[in-house]
């Protein structure tokens, strides 16, 4: 690889590296407008990352060590579990490949795209060089001031090094950026010519440089100009205007008065997303948690043996201290879940759903008249060919992602594949686009946790879910309002579940299904999709990688795109490695269950009953030779529950999980990646797998 890093179509990356964290790290020059472009783009996409700024001059050795490349413009560096990319252009290109359609910063129209790129190349080319020359020259004229600016937010060791080695570092900066004393006026002259060019573009009162939509050109001009305008909202280090030398301050004030300067200030005030506070970042596990995880791995506890033991020795297990009973044998679980009038769900889910402003038929019992009424209405919005529509979308979206990932040799299954595909599916099929991918993930993670995993009714967890539900409710209601306006304007709506419900709503006799009913039911459909599907994909891959005798057959099936057989592998893998081991029901009165046996088991009144479906699937009477992994098995699986309240998205999950798993298995020589992110189910946040990395390509073996 050469030392020229300005090819806008080239993504520069390092292939061999180790990284295992639940969020990326962004390594930058603390005082660099070009790095601020990339940081801005990450923030637009709401990507959580650790910002790791380094002092000018000293940043080079850090960046060169990470990238294994020499050269002045190799920063910034974005380090993910499956990708280490460097240079501003690379971060931008990578973002455009992977972001939501609504977040793209390059127009689809070729002529418009060329206009944007021409401006971007000017701003991040010679203009950036001249701005850097001028600003560094001004700052270096005062040693104490330069130290205070250049070492802000950098590691302590760099603060010390900058003070001790100031003369050699500044000499290096002058050499790198060609800073003879006479360059100030020349640089300033070019800067003003660019400001004049921007002034002319804005003369017709357009909102942005190329029209009415924010593009990469606007961000590049604002970010690179930030050391000249000094906006408070800047993500890079810029001094306060009252702190800078007099000559520098005069120039800043003059540029601020121009339309271009006002444009930069407005972009930062209105379009620069707020930066994520360190306190809002996900917590990384400490050393003790990492050691504990390794111990679990070394113990290699078999869940399947536990499930087999429970159904055999304890068909019903009383946990008196918890006022809970588990039902473990297949015929008993089947009877319990079939008796949905005796063993109910409203006491389990309904209150939390109501608190979340999302009352939904899966949280009601049949005795509730709303159950059939709303369930049947929602069902009328689905069609026979929907599953093939979903299959085609998931396969196409997955193939596009994996094509882009080919060069890297690694894939973070949740973050690079599952979540992006599933969030886009929520838009394509359900009609609910995401504000950002991270926001959609947050909403459904906290909602799902509170509904199904908050067994102790933790108030903090519950509040997170209530807050998320209110945000999501408002978002969906705004979408409904927009769609109805389109109908009033005589426009056709895209074909998706939300729009089908709105069209059904307008038919005679359907006024009872109002906008709140639409948002409640659409929201209910969405809540169980992201985390359950992503977790299932990771668990299936984990189980298959643990079975070298089974894996080749699964890979062959994926390559042949035999999705019926692929679903057999998925079902068996989830039987051994379940996403959710069971479901909870409530018994108001004393009852008995017997199943197909001769012995009756008493369920005391006011008892929660845990139907352990995972154990029921190891009952040899229902799953012959249960410890054998058999993708051809014809038994009735309970991976999605059973009975009246079986997961409503069962058939969609069957498609999405199978397609996502098959897409990964089609990677050449696919295998676990080395390091913590490839062990077991990778890195997790609570019960949710967040990073699971596979390696592929024969070259890396």
Number of strands: 17
Largest sheet: spatial strand order: 1-5-4-2-3
Regions with pLDDT < 50 over 5+ consecutive residues? 1-5
Q: Major beta sheet, specifics?
A: 5 strands, mixed
Q: What is Rg?
A: 29 Å
Termini separation: 22 Å
User: Can you tell me the overall shape?
Assistant: elongated
Which structural category do the helix and sheet elements fall into? alpha+beta
Strand content: 5-15%
Report the total helices. 28
The helix content, as a percent range, equals 40-55%
Average predicted local confidence, pLDDT: 92
Give an overview in words:
The chain starts with 11 loop residues before the first strand and ends in a 6-residue tail after the last strand. Helix 1 (33-44) links the parallel strand 2 and strand 3 (50-54). It has 28 helices and 17 strands. Helix 1 (33-44) packs parallel to helix 3 (88-98) and helix 5 (126-140) packs parallel to helix 10 (216-229). The radius of gyration is 29 Å and the shape is elongated. The protein is an alpha+beta fold and 701 residues long. The relative contact order is 0.10. The longest helix has 30 residues, at 459-488.
């Amino acid at each position: 690889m050469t030392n020229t890093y300005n090819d806008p179509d080239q993504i520069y990356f390092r292939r061999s590296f180790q990284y295992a964290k639940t969020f990326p790290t962004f390594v930058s020059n603390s005082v660099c407008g070009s790095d601020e472009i990339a940081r801005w783009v990450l923030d637009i996409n709401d990507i959580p990352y650790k910002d790791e700024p380094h002092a000018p001059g000293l940043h080079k050795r850090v960046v060169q060590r990470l990238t294994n490349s020499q050269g002045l413009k190799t920063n910034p560096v974005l380090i993910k579990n499956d990708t280490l990319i460097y240079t501003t252009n690379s971060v931008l290109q990578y973002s455009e490949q992977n972001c939501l359609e609504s977040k793209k910063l390059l127009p689809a129209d070729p002529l418009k795209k060329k206009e944007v790129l021409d401006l971007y190349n000017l701003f991040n080319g010679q203009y950036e060089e001249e701005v850097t020359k001028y600003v560094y020259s001004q700052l270096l004229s005062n040693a104490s001031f330069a130290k205070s600016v250049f070492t802000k937010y950098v590691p302590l060791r760099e603060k010390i090094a900058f003070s001790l080695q100031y003369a050699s570092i500044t000499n290096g900066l002058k050499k790198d950026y060609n800073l003879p004393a006479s360059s100030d006026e020349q640089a300033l002259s070019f800067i003003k010519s660019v400001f004049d060019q921007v002034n002319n573009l804005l003369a017709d009162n357009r909102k942005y440089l190329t029209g009415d939509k924010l593009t990469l050109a606007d961000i590049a001009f604002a970010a690179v100009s930030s050391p000249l305008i000094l906006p408070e909202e800047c993500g890079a280090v810029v001094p306060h205007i009252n702190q800078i030398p007099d000559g520098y301050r005069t120039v800043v004030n003059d540029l601020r008065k121009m339309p271009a300067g006002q444009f930069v200030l407005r972009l930062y005030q209105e379009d620069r997303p707020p930066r994520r506070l360190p306190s809002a970042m996900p917590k990384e596990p400490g050393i003790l948690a990492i050691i504990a995880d390794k111990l679990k791995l070394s113990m290699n506890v078999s869940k399947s043996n536990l499930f087999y033991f429970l159904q055999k020795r304890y068909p019903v297990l009383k946990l008196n201290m918890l006022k809970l009973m588990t039902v473990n044998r297949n015929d008993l679980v089947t009877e319990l879940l079939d008796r949905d009038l005796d063993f109910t769900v409203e006491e389990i889910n309904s209150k939390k759903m109501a608190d979340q402003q999302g009352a939904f038929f899966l949280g009601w019992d049949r005795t509730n008249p709303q159950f059939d009424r709303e369930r049947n209405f929602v069902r009328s919005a689905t069609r026979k060919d929907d599953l093939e529509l979903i299959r085609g979308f998931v396969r196409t979206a997955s193939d596009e992602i994996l094509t882009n990932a080919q060069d890297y040799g690694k894939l973070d299954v949740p973050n690079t594949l599952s979540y992006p595909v599933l969030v886009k599916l929520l838009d394509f099929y359900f009609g609910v686009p995401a504000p950002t991918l991270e926001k959609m993930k947050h909403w459904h993670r906290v909602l799902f946790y509170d509904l199904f995993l908050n067994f102790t009714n933790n108030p903090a967890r519950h509040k997170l879910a209530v807050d998320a539900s209110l945000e999501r409710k408002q978002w969906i209601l705004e979408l409904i309002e927009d769609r109805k306006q389109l109908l009033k304007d005589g426009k056709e709506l895209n074909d998706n579940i939300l729009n089908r419900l709105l069209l059904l709503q307008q038919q005679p006799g359907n006024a009872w299904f109002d906008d709140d009913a639409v948002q409640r039911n659409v929201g209910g459909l969405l809540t169980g999709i992201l985390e359950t599907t992503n977790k299932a994909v990771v668990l299936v891959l984990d189980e298959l990688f643990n079975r070298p005798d089974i894996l080749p057959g699964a890979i062959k099936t994926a390559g042949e795109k035999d999705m019926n057989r692929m679903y057999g592998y998925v079902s068996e893998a989830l039987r051994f490695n379940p996403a959710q081991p069971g479901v909870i029901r409530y018994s108001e009165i004393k009852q008995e269950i017997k199943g197909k046996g001769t012995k009756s088991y008493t369920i005391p009144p006011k008892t929660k009953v845990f139907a352990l479906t995972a154990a029921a699937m190891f009952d040899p009477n229902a799953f012959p030779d249960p410890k054998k992994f058999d993708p051809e098995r014809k038994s009735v699986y309970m991976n999605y529950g059973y009975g009246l309240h079986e997961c409503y998205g069962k058939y969609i999950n069957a498609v999405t999980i199978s397609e996502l798993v098959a897409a990964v298995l089609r990677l050449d020589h696919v295998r676990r990646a080395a390091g913590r992110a490839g062990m077991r189910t990778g890195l997790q946040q609570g019960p949710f797998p967040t990073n699971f990395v596979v390696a592929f390509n024969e070259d890396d073996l």
